[in-house]
Amino acid sequence: MVDIHLLPAINAVLNGTSAVLVAAGIVLIRHKKRTAHKRVMLAAVGTSTLFLLCYLWYHAQVGNVRFMAYGWPRPVYFFILTTHTLLAIVVVPLVLVTVIRALRGRFERHRASARWTYPVWLYVSVTGVVIYVMLYCLFAG
Predict the structure, then answer these.
(1) For helices 107-132 and 34-62, what crossing angle results, to 10°?
(2) What's the pLDDT score for residue 141?
(3) How far apart are CA 119 and CA 125, in angstroms?
(4) What residues have CB less than 8 Å from 47, skipping those under 6 apart?
(5) pLDDT in tens, 93-106
(6) With contact defined as beta carbons under 8 Å apart, do 132 and 15 qualify?
(7) Contact, 91 vs 121, CB < 8 A?
(8) What is the distance between the alpha carbons of residues 52 and 58, in angstroms, rounded to a whole number?
(9) Does pLDDT of 139 surpass 90?
(10) For the whole model, what pTM was predicted?
(11) Which domains are delineated in the chain?
């Protein structure tokens, strides 16, 4: 069993991994490496899904974690947290639609939705790591 207090770090690693996989997937498809793109993007979906499950489990056990810093870090943190949270809600259906379109072979529609999905997914993954660093490393109480 994993120590509950390790989950924020594990979640940050999962978010960072998702970001790297999404970025790699974009590079691969731009180089017309469709099979590698598919594998990498499915790995990104798996990593993001695992993150979401760990995140929900952690917060079901621990509840909310307060940001303890004051001064300039506070509005920066809450801006990042707010945009991250709103876009995290949006990205789930975007990813589902984009993946389903690809798996069904509807590549024109997949490409159209991916243009919106990948930057949002990348932002959510990267800001997830930033939030972890701000909350648990830089400004921990």
Answers:
(1) 40
(2) 62
(3) 10
(4) 14, 17, 18, 21
(5) 999 999 999 999 99
(6) yes
(7) yes
(8) 10
(9) no
(10) 0.93
(11) 4-138 (1.20.120.80)
